[in-house]
Design a protein that fits this description.
Blueprint (H helix, E strand, L loop, with lengths): L1 H29 L2 H4 L27 E7 L5 H6 L3 E3 L5 E2 L5 E4 L3 E4 L5 H12 L7 E6 L3 E6 L5 E4 L5 E2 H7 L12 E7 L2 E7 L13 E2 L4 E4 L3 H33 L1
Parallel strand pairs: 7-13
Antiparallel strand pairs: 1-2, 1-3, 1-6, 4-5, 7-8, 9-12, 10-11, 10-13
């Protein structure tokens, strides 16, 4: 009878221990939001409409520009080389922190804040002082979008045009994972008014706006994990010390068992 009662007590102790661990895991899972999700805010994020004209990229300091100078084909040096346009450098020209570039013949040119077309027109006007009918082409070489979070291939998405849709960016990133929150995609944009955030619900067609799906160069797309993913990660972080202790103690327990 005593043996039965002792076994019963051990069983109850085991159940209580398991219950305590499960309750601790539940508490850890409930408190995991603050540490796991990125770009959280206590303010209400309103759905913002993006105007089509705001998509056009404006040059920033530290951008790298491709500048091609087209000169009069009747000039002797152009006729001899057979080239239509001349690139300033093969790797592009870096815009300095003051927003300037240094170009042959005309020197320093301030281009920060201009669109590619505006920069090309400004450089062309400056070259007209020295060349016959010059024409300049300007393109930003380092335009990109960052895609982070619950996608299969997070990272930098190169952008070879003025805009890209959110669906294109997700496709470049290998699609969403099964743990992705699809009704709350976060997009961060650096505008003239500072950093702005908007959210997109990809699960409801009737709430989508084509302009809002457009991404600018240097936008950041963050796909949040669902609550179950957070719980799994938090639980793993909680139980990993116990797993380590168990692995360390296992040989000693085995030796004790064999010695008995």
């Amino acid at each position: 009878m005593k043996k039965y009662e002792t076994g019963r007590e051990n069983e109850m102790s085991t159940i209580k221990g398991i219950g305590t661990v499960l309750f601790a895991l539940f508490l850890v899972g409930c408190s995991s939001d603050e540490n796991y999700k990125l770009v959280q805010t206590t303010h209400t994020v309103e759905s913002q409409k993006v105007a089509n004209r705001s998509i056009e990229y404006r040059i920033l300091p530290q951008d790298r520009l491709e500048v091609v100078l087209y000169k009069d084909p009747n000039q002797e040096n152009m006729a001899a080389s057979g080239e239509l346009g001349q690139k300033m450098t093969s790797k592009g020209i870096l815009v300095d922190t003051a927003g300037n570039v240094i170009l042959p013949l005309i020197g320093k040119v301030h281009v920060a804040g201009l669109t590619q077309t505006q920069a090309a027109d400004k450089i062309t006007r400056m070259y007209k002082k020295y060349l016959n009918t010059p024409s300049v082409y300007v393109e930003v070489l380092n335009k990109r979008i960052l895609v982070l979070g619950e996608v299969n291939k997070p990272g930098v998405v190169p952008l070879d045009k003025e805009k890209m849709t959110l669906f294109e960016a997700i496709a470049h990133a290998g699609d969403l994972t099964d743990d992705a929150v699809r009704n709350h995609i976060v997009i961060l944009s650096n505008t003239s008014h500072g950093m702005q955030m908007r959210t997109i619900n990809l699960t409801r067609f009737d709430t989508m706006n084509y302009a809002n799906l457009m991404l600018r160069p240097n936008d950041i797309v963050y796909v949040q994990p669902n609550d179950w993913k957070e719980f799994r990660v938090a639980s793993k972080n909680f139980t990993s010390p116990f797993e380590t202790i168990t692995k360390i103690a296992a040989p000693f327990v085995t030796l004790k068992y064999l010695s008995d």
